[in-house]
């Protein structure tokens, strides 16, 4: 009878949970504006905290070498935001110019794309009906994915432009976060309940150990690869080298699939010029991937994640299905945090179980 009552309680709890979720979703017009407002207000602080997380180890290294903290913060802060400001000041107008030029020549690329599609359909017209239908569905899926990605990119760009004033305060927030890093740690320590402090510190330490070097290394590799690809595309006279280099640098964050995604726009634009240009672009992509896989990644990124490639691929597939390109970028860091969380949860429950047995 007790077992039946337990099952009834569990079913009742699940039913109540579904009812609460249903009511919560029905009240979306009420709470969604509050969530959007909260995201807009907290986003500069989140970005500033991420910048602080990236720069803090360098500040600590300088401080440990007998440099006053305020001076170390000022030096790193000036170098980082000075480089970013100069890059944005010179790069953004060039990217906008190339993007505008690309938009003007979009009909030429569209015609080239239609010729490819017609050629594929003509060559596969004699294939079995089921195979041809799958090819058509694949082409349609790729078109929808490209359209969705382009729309998201445009919306993101417009959102950043509209929130320029809001994002302008990020350097000031990051400066005070770097300057008062130890004070913020102490504040979090005192706010956290005493019974969670030791486990929370160990958890954050393991997350930083697993994820910190990966993020910093991966960003460094992406900057190097993006810069090299833009310079090489400019050297072979490929149109829009800065824009294509930016795309390759950003997509290179995605393990395994990123280089393929980033290479597609460059190959499509090269195809509108000549077969020789396609050959040059493919050679550049192969050289850059060899440079990353055999020189940059092993020395800069290393094997900090300690995750099997199959786990990483699973995370990428799940992230791409859930969140598209953004999901692909965030999939591996989220999986790394989830891995550390599961290990700590296992240790916690094992420790609690052993304590209960001793009692």
Can you characterise this structure?
- The chain has a domain of 136 residues.
- 89% of the residues lie in helices and 0% in strands.
- It contains 13 helices and no strands.
- α9 runs antiparallel to α10 and α11 packs antiparallel against α12.
Fraction of residues in β-strands: under 5%
Number of helices: 13
Largest sheet features: none
Rg for CA atoms: 25 Å
**Average pLDDT figure:** 76
From the spread of the alpha carbons, the general shape counts as globular
- Gap between N and C termini: 29 Å
Query: Structural class per helix/strand content?
Result: mainly alpha
User: Uncertain segments of ≥5 residues (pLDDT<50)?
Assistant: none
In percent, how helical is the residue content? Answer: over 70%
Order of helices and strands: HHHHHHHHHHHHH
In total, how many beta strands? Answer: 0
What keyword list fits this structure?
89% helix; 359 residues; mainly alpha
């Amino acid at each position: 009878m007790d077992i039946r009552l337990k099952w009834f309680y569990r079913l009742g709890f699940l039913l109540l949970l579904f009812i609460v979720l249903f009511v919560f979703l029905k009240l979306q017009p009420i709470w969604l504006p509050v969530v959007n407002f909260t995201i807009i207000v907290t986003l500069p602080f989140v970005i500033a905290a991420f910048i602080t997380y990236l720069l803090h180890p360098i500040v600590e290294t300088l401080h440990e070498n007998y440099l006053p903290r305020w001076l170390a913060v000022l030096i790193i802060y000036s170098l980082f935001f000075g480089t970013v400001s100069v890059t944005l000041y010179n790069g953004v107008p060039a990217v906008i110019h190339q993007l505008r030029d690309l938009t003007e020549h979009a009909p030429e690329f569209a015609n080239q794309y239609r010729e490819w599609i017609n050629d594929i359909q003509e060559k596969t017209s004699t294939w079995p009906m089921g195979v041809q239908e799958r090819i058509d569905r694949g082409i349609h899926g790729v078109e929808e994915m490209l359209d969705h990605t382009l729309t998201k990119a445009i919306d993101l760009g417009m959102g950043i432009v509209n929130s320029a004033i809001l994002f302008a305060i990020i350097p000031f927030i990051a400066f005070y976060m770097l300057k008062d890093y130890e004070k913020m740690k102490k504040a979090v320590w005192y706010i956290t309940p005493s019974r969670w402090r030791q486990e929370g510190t160990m958890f954050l330490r393991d997350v930083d150990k697993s994820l910190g070097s990966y993020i910093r290394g991966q960003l460094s590799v992406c900057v190097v690869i993006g810069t090299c690809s833009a310079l090489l595309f400019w050297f072979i006279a490929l149109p829009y080298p800065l824009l294509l280099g930016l795309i390759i640098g950003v997509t290179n964050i995605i393990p395994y699939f990123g280089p393929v995604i980033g290479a597609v726009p460059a190959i499509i634009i090269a195809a509108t010029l000549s077969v020789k240009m396609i050959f040059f672009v493919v050679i550049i992509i192969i050289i850059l991937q060899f440079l990353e896989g055999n020189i940059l990644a092993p020395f800069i990124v290393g094997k900090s994640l300690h995750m099997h490639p199959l786990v990483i691929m699973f995370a990428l597939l799940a992230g791409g299905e859930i969140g598209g390109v953004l999901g692909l970028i965030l999939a591996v860091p989220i999986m790394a945090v989830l891995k550390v969380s599961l290990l700590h949860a296992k240790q916690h429950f094992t420790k609690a179980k052993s304590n209960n047995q001793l009692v």
